């Protein structure tokens, strides 16, 4: 039921709403769409918000424009899911001068002055990389292959994106702990299934002893699965497949036995951001860094969890 | 009535007037529709320039190339390469801002020179040459660095963030201060390039040769112009402007990354076309292109102010407005019966 | 003298340069990757680099066929084909399984495909209308769907990637059990043969060239120039639709953002590498097809040589420039001059040039 | 003729694939003379000019210019201009998108404070055109003006540039007599100033009126150089054609055309017209009749024929074909009924430059037979061969691109294209423009022959004489209005001229 709002006399209604300008990256993946939906469902008028949504279509220029327009519209808060980490000084300075707090979602930004943003909400890509390696180590132990030579290939995301940079970094940081693992090759599959498939085909022809595929998102993992099948091998059995994001389709693949694990990257940032805004409204201090909860989902749990996946 | 008016002035001026009128109408509509959202503030208008400084340079340059009968679809990649190179030089190699800028401009010129050679002297189609150029520059960007590089160079940031205030048109912001409208130096660069090219195209031999070559290459040759050299110059200058556009773009985004400015060339082309430039060459002017940029910017501002459109609708709405514009121009501008038109030789 | 005449004879053949380029690319492969030409049967299908190239080039070949006619007839390019592929794929998949990934068909498979193709043809007709009737320049007109196409596809999919979880759906983009040749290769071949028949057995090929060479004169000899321009764009839409079917079937899903991304540029490139002029008139379908295969061969080669995907464009650019330069008649002229200077050198002093 | 030599060409060679366009051609030009360059279509006249001015590269030979002490090889018209040679090429070459004034001053714009001085340009252009008595708005793009105006502008530009040599390649082919007069008076002035003029034309009268000497080319070989005064016309024609020639008399015979009564109506129009181009007109054409459309440049002759053919859609009136109502919305409708249309502007509306001669010939018939019935290549070849033979088209082979043919031969190909469709009504808009005397006579004879076979013809030409030879009736147009029809005894040069010019001598034009 509509929450009873103080002074809800219709006329001043708009004024009582907290206006949030939200500069989203785009709709380039299911993950992103789920992320958007999470905001759109959180910041509704019933909850006391008015959301001004801008979709940058993966272009930083567009986000910069959007923020400038938010400032002109005198919004109360700006939520920014930056396309890239660089180049935010100028426009965030303008927001600061206008006295509008900026909350970052998903990706971090690279600025020398921390005060340009109030808080950051997101997943930890590097940690996801760590989780991936740890899970693999555990799984190999389970299989009794802990001491074998293990050959790994990585399908990287779009080079330069924070997910790619973070996940690659996370995996690489943990690799030295396992001297018997070889990273045979890394190549970008640009986060898409078809590129992932094409690159995997090429890997399979170059190396005939691949044990593990780490795909930096689930879509590329699906492409890899097809390529492996085409090469006459059994994905999930002959070759261990790990993906990131844990979208619903990944659970389906795991249930089908084609995939072994997906590391979650939680898109539901909306409620967290609302929490921060509520605190700020009350005049409380907020922490800078807010991680969302993220898990690791192996195939063995897939069937159990699939119905509870919201995206 | 329109017909009579059209007979009086030449058709291209007529098209330009249409474009300008449409822009003004559109802007007024915006002010009325988004009354309560302060669309009418001077700063909203200036933001069109601030956010599109690089595009202004690129569109002006694109206009010149299109007038010459060519096309350049490598501009976006060159912009990305320039940003990356600037960032890499300043951040990773500790090169000062001035030498860095000089280097990227020189690289732009060399890049343009090679494209020009292939187009003018080997007569390879501009679309293909610049398509290769597009691939090349994008790939080079990745070769320079696959990581994002953020520019922290103080001198650079100082230029990027230097606000040039106007003494009027201010408004009171939420903290109670009066904010006067302002622009950044990048806007100034864009406007200088615009003025420069306006004069070059109208008042220099080189400029007129561009029109002649675009109008009919064979004729221009027979009339005694050096067609090849003209084209080469166009692409060299265009290379320079592409790099300059990269610099201006970089002032706005202060960083370099591989995916930067994707599709930028299409924006530049669209702006030129909205401004009345023909892709077939020989027709167009930079004033129109500026309005092309402003119209594109206004459409985007509409969408932000509207505030609920998701990505797909944004794309569709932009395309629909683009379509509306092009079709309207075509309908209003056409029906001039061209009699005894001189043949386009091959 | 002899060298010159041989050179002239060879270089006169329009297909010579495109094919040479392809051969060069393949030979480099053979040296670098000895297993390159190895073809085996795996799971009952042909398997190997060469098959990969042909298989992956299929969409490009189909698009290049449409693009060749568009270029020939209107002297412009259709930059919307990639987006239209996505639209067609989105329509088909949405009709088949609805907004959520699923394995149950809601309507007959063939019907869904036909409707997807119809959607693509409508897109093509929209382009055709703008270009033929309103006389808008091709690149500008197709820029509209280039921008809107993916948006439309996303409206259909609501921004989600929809999967079709049914084996049969994979047939078009992969292989049909029992047939050793990957289906895309078969489809591309069929499209090629049908198009070729249409062009060679009817006057269509001649009409298209005629309109492309001189639209006004074509009108006076009774050809409805606008109609043909309209038709080739509709056809290009159809080709985009067909490749959209292959693309979506390959990954048994529709990803509106990425299906056929940037493929229009490769299609245009294929047309140019095939020795066709981009300003209309005479065309060579065979050239475009060789061009398309060359582009894919190049990509596969570079992957095999471990060039990373983000740097790949650099090498692609270099090869493309190389190919178009040696094909350019101006370059041939310079070389011819050079050769004749060498051969004449003994006989008499050269007049200043 | 004791003027000094300002330009010599010795042993000029030029080969195109499959054609030897020029072989060891010599040519000499003196200052203050008009030197006519004569020859049949495809003799190599234009090629000689192009080689001289650097449009085409020279294969062999030597060019010398007075005041330059080494052989000159121009690599571009720009260089030729530097040596004081300016040229009007056969196909008008102006930049359609630029203003008239700018076309005149392109590449040599006057400047003021380092920037182009538009005021001066427009002013001077107006002055220059004044010499030719052309009063137009020089600031408008040249594409707005008729072919004739364009031609005059091209000439005005060349005249203004020339300091030593002026080359005019068929400048008069699209001009009417009035304009030709203006051109000639300007040429005389230039002559007096000591400029050498190379003049190419197919009109013998012009040659004898203005030229001092004649060089004749045949099949790329120089036949000889003659004083105009000492070379009788018949001789000239004979030398051009390479055979003894007595057809000049035949032409005269043709002229004595017998008026006869025609019975079967073929085409009739009732207030047919089109807004902004041709006022509604009534027109009647019988079977087997040749009717000429006469008028000044821009009087609407082409307009009228285009409306009949459906190339421009009529927006008023009605047409009847053999007494039945017809609706001609597009050229195809007209073709289906049995019309054929040869456009006046060959380059723009006539040829398909990249297509072969064969394809250019068969295209109209193919368009008529429809898309599903493609003529076999055998049929195509047979047709092409037949008409190449019949019209004596000079081409290396039937698969050569038509753009490689000389202008006159291109025109013949278009003729062949329409004859192939076996029309009942041929609309010929300037069919003999740029065609040599021999061929011209052939075409005139062909027209009469066709009429004899019962075909009807609408004939447009800027040469009244030519029209007198072939037409039995003439429709006179002025400013888009059909003024009157002349036939029988009224068909005399003087009478026609008077009607065209308008009985009332108004102040304008
Ligand atoms: N670019 C070309 N390529 C091939 N052959 C050509 C080319 N230009 C001219 N020719 C050939 O050279 C010959 C001479 O042509 P040219 O145009 O000089 O004739 P012309 O004397 O000017 O005839 P016309 O009176 O018809 O204009 C012709 O046989 C023509 O076919
Ligand atoms: N001096 C001029 N200024 C502007 N337009 C002109 C001029 N002369 C002709 N035109 C254009 O040409 C049209 C009529 O030309 P049309 O071609 O029908 O004449 P024509 O009698 O066939 O003469 P031509 O010998 O040039 O073909 C006019 O409607 C006008 O648009
Ligand atoms: Mg000639
Ligand atoms: Mg006419």
Features:
heterotetramer; B: 346 residues; mainly alpha; two-stranded antiparallel sheet; globular; D: alpha/beta; Rossmann fold; 3 domains; six-stranded mixed beta sheet; 21 strands; binds adenosine-5'-triphosphate; binds magnesium ion
Concise structural overview:
The complex is a heterotetramer of chains A (311), B (346), C (353) and D (509). Chain C is 68% helix and 3% strand.
What does this structure look like?
Helices cover 40% and strands 20% of the residues of chain A. Chain A is built from 11 helices and 12 strands. In chain A, α3 (60-72) runs parallel beside α4 (89-97) and α9 (248-255) crosses α11. The longest helix of chain A has 19 residues, at 125-143. Chain B starts with a helix and ends in a 13-residue tail after the last helix. Chain B has one domain. Chain B has helices spanning 2-8, 11-33, 42-51, 53-67, 75-92, 97-121, 126-144, 154-161, 185-203, 205-215, 217-222, 227-253, 264-274, 286-306, 311-333; strands spanning 149-150, 164-165, 171-172, 178-179, 182-183, 255-256. Chain B has 15 helices and 6 strands. With 353 residues, chain C is mostly helical. Chain C is globular. In chain C, the strands form 2 sheets. In chain C, strands 1-2 form a two-stranded antiparallel sheet. In chain C, 59% of the residues are buried. The longest helix of chain C has 26 residues, at 49-74. By secondary structure, chain D is α/β, with parallel strands linked by helices. Chain D has 18 helices and 21 strands. A 6-stranded mixed β-sheet of chain D has the order 5-8-9-3-10-11, sandwiched between helices. A 6-stranded mixed β-sheet of chain D has the order 17-18-19-14-20-21, with helices on both faces. In chain D, α13 packs across α14. The two termini of chain D are 38 Å apart. Residues 247-257 and 504-509 of chain D have low confidence and may be disordered. The chains are: A alpha/beta (311), B mainly alpha (346), C mainly alpha (353), D alpha/beta (509). Chains in contact: A-B, A-C, B-C, B-D, C-D. The site of one adenosine-5'-triphosphate (ATP) has 20 residues of chain D, from β2, α1 and α15. One adenosine-5'-triphosphate binds next to α5 and α10 of chain D.
């Amino acid at each position: 039921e509509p929450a009873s709002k103080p002074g809800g006399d219709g006329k001043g209604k708009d004024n009582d709403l907290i206006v949030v300008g939200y500069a989203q990256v785009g709709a380039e993946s299911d993950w992103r769409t789920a992320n958007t939906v999470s905001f759109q469902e959180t910041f509704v008028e019933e909850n006391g918000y008015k959301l001004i949504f801008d979709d940058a279509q993966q272009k930083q220029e567009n986000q910069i424009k959007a923020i400038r327009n938010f400032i002109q519209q005198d919004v109360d808060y700006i939520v920014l899911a930056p396309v890239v980490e660089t180049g935010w000084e100028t426009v965030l300075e303008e927001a600061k001068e206008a006295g509008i707090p900026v909350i970052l979602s998903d990706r971090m930004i690279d600025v020398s002055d921390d005060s340009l943003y109030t808080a950051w909400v997101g997943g930890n890509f590097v940690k996801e990389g760590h989780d991936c390696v740890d899970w693999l180590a555990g799984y190999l132990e389970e299989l009794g292959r802990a001491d074998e030579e293990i050959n790994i290939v990585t399908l990287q995301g779009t080079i330069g994106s924070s997910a790619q940079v973070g996940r690659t970094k996370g995996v690489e940081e943990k690799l030295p702990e396992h001297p018997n693992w070889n990273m045979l090759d890394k190549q970008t599959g640009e986060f898409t299934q078809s590129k992932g498939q094409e690159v995997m085909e090429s890997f399979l022809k170059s190396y005939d002893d691949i044990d593990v595929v780490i795909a930096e998102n689930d879509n590329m993992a699906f492409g890899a699965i097809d390529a492996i099948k085409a090469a006459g091998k059994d994905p999930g059995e002959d070759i261990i497949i790990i993906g990131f994001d844990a979208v619903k389709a990944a659970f389906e693949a795991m249930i089908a036995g084609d995939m072994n694990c997906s590391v979650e990257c939680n898109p539901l940032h909306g409620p967290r951001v609302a929490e921060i805004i509520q605190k700020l409204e009350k005049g409380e201090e907020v922490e800078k860094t807010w991680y969302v909860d993220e898990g690791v989902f192996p195939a063995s749990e897939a069937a159990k969890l699939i119905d509870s996946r919201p995206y | 009535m329109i017909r009579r008016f059209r007979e009086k002035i030449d058709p291209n001026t007529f098209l330009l007037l249409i474009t300008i009128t449409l822009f003004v109408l559109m802007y007024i509509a915006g002010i009325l529709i988004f009354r309560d959202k302060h669309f009418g503030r001077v700063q909203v208008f200036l933001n069109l320039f601030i956010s599109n400084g690089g595009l202004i340079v690129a569109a002006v340059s694109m206009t010149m190339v299109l007038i010459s009968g060519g096309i350049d679809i490598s501009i976006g990649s060159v912009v990305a390469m320039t940003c990356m190179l600037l960032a890499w030089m300043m951040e990773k190699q500790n090169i000062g801002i001035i030498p860095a800028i000089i280097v990227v401009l020189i690289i732009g010129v060399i890049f343009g020179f090679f494209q020009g050679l292939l187009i003018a002297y080997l007569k390879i189609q501009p679309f293909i040459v610049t398509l290769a150029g597009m691939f090349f520059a994008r790939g080079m960007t990745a070769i320079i660095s696959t990581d994002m590089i953020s520019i922290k160079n103080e001198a650079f940031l100082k230029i990027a963030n230097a606000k040039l205030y106007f003494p009027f048109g201010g408004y009171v912001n939420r903290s109670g201060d009066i904010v006067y409208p302002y622009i950044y130096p990048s806007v100034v660069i864009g406007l200088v390039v615009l003025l420069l090219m306006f004069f070059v195209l109208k008042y220099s031999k080189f400029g007129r040769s561009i029109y002649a070559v675009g109008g009919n290459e064979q004729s221009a040759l027979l009339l005694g112009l050096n067609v090849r050299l003209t084209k080469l110059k166009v692409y060299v200058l265009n290379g320079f402007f592409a790099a300059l556009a990269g610099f201006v773009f970089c002032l706005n985004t202060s960083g370099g990354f591989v995916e930067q400015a994707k599709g930028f060339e299409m924006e530049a082309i669209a702006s030129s076309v909205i401004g009345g430039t023909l892709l077939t060459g020989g027709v167009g002017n930079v004033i129109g292109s500026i309005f092309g940029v402003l119209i594109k910017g206004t459409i985007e501002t509409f969408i932000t102010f509207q505030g609920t459109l998701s990505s797909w609708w944004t794309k569709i709405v932009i395309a629909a407005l683009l379509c509306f514009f092009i079709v309207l121009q075509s309908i209003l501008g056409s029906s001039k019966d061209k009699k005894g038109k001189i043949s386009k030789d091959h | 003298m002899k060298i010159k005449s041989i050179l002239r004879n060879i270089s006169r053949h329009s297909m010579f340069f495109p094919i040479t380029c392809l051969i060069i690319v393949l030979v480099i492969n053979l040296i670098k990757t000895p297993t390159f030409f190895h073809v085996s049967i795996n799971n009952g299908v042909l398997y190997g680099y060469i098959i990969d190239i042909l298989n992956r080039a299929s969409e490009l070949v189909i698009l290049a066929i449409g693009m060749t006619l568009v270029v020939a007839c209107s002297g412009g390019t259709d930059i919307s084909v990639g987006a239209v592929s996505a639209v067609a794929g989105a329509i088909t998949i949405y009709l088949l399984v609805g907004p959520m990934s699923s394995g149950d068909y809601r309507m007959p498979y063939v019907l869904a495909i036909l409707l997807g193709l119809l959607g693509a043809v409508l897109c093509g007709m929209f382009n055709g209308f703008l270009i033929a009737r309103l006389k808008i320049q091709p690149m500008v007109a197709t820029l509209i769907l280039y921008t809107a196409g993916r948006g439309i596809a996303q409206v259909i999919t609501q921004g989600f990637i929809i999967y079709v979880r049914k084996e049969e759906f994979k047939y078009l983009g992969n292989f049909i059990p029992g047939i050793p040749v990957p289906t895309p290769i078969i489809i591309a071949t069929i499209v090629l043969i049908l198009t070729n028949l249409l062009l060679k057995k009817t006057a269509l090929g001649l009409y298209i060239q005629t309109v492309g060479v001189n639209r006004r004169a074509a009108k006076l000899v009774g050809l409805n120039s606008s109609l043909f321009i309209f038709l080739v764009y509709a056809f290009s839409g159809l080709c985009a639709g067909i490749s959209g079917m292959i693309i979506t079937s390959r990954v048994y899903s529709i990803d509106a953002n990425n299906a056929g991304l940037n493929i229009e540029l490769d299609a245009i490139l294929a047309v140019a590498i095939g020795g066709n002029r981009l300003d209309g008139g005479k065309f060579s379908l065979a050239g475009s097809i060789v061009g398309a295969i060359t582009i894919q061969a190049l990509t596969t080669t570079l992957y095999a040589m471990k060039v990373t995907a983000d740097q790949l464009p650099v090498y692609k650019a270099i090869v493309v420039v190389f190919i178009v330069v040696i094909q350019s008649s101006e370059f041939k002229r310079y070389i011819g001059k050079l050769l004749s200077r060498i051969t004449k050198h003994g006989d008499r002093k050269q007049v200043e040039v | 003729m004791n003027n000094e030599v300002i330009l010599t060409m010795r042993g000029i060679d030029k080969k195109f694939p499959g054609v030897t366009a020029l072989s060891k051609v010599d040519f000499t030009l003196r200052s203050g003379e008009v030197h006519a360059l004569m020859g049949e279509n495809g003799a190599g006249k234009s090629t000689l000019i192009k080689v001289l001015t650097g449009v085409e590269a020279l294969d062999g030979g030597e060019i010398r210019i007075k005041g330059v002490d080494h052989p000159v090889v121009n690599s571009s018209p720009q260089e030729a201009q530097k040596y004081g040679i300016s040229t009007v090429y056969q196909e008008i070459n102006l930049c359609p998108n630029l203003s008239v004034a700018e076309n005149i001053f392109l590449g040599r714009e006057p400047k003021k404070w380092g920037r182009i001085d538009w005021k001066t340009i427009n002013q001077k252009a107006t002055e220059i055109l004044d010499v030719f008595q052309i009063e137009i708005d020089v600031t408008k793009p040249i594409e707005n003006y008729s072919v004739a105006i364009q031609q005059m502008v091209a000439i005005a530009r060349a005249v203004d540039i020339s300091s030593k040599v002026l080359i005019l390649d068929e400048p008069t082919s699209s001009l009417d007599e009035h304009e030709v007069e203006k051109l000639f008076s300007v040429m005389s002035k230039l002559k007096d100033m000591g400029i050498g003029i190379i003049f190419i034309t197919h009109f013998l009268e012009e040659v004898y009126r203005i030229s001092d000497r004649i060089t004749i080319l045949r099949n790329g070989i120089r036949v000889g150089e003659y004083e105009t005064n000492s070379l009788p016309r018949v001789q000239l024609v004979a030398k051009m054609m390479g055979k003894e020639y007595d057809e000049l008399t035949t032409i005269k015979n043709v002229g004595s055309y017998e008026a006869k009564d025609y019975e079967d109506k073929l085409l009739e129009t009732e207030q047919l017209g089109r807004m902004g181009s041709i006022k509604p007109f009534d027109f009647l054409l019988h079977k087997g009749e040749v009717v000429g459309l006469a008028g000044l440049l821009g009087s609407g002759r082409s307009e009228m024929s285009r409306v009949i053919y459906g190339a421009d859609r009529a927006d008023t009136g009605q047409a009847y074909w053999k007494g039945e109502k017809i609706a001609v919305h597009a050229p195809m409708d007209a073709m289906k009924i049995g019309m054929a249309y040869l456009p006046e502007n060959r380059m723009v509306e006539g040829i398909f430059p990249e297509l072969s001669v064969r394809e250019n010939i068969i295209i109209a018939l193919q368009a008529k037979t429809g898309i599903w019935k493609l003529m076999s290549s055998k049929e195509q070849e047979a047709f092409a061969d037949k008409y190449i033979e019949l019209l004596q088209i000079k081409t290396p082979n039937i698969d050569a691109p038509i753009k490689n043919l000389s202008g006159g031969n291109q025109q013949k190909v278009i003729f062949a294209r329409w004859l192939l469709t076996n029309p009942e009504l041929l609309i010929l808009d300037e069919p003999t423009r740029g065609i040599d005397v021999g061929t011209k006579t052939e075409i005139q004879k062909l027209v009469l022959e066709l009429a004899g076979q019962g075909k009807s013809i609408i004939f447009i030409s800027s040469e009244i004489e030519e029209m007198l030879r072939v037409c039995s009736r003439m429709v006179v147009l002025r400013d888009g209005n059909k003024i009157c029809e002349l036939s029988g005894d009224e068909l005399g040069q003087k009478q026609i001229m008077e009607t065209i010019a308008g009985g009332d001598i108004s102040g304008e034009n």
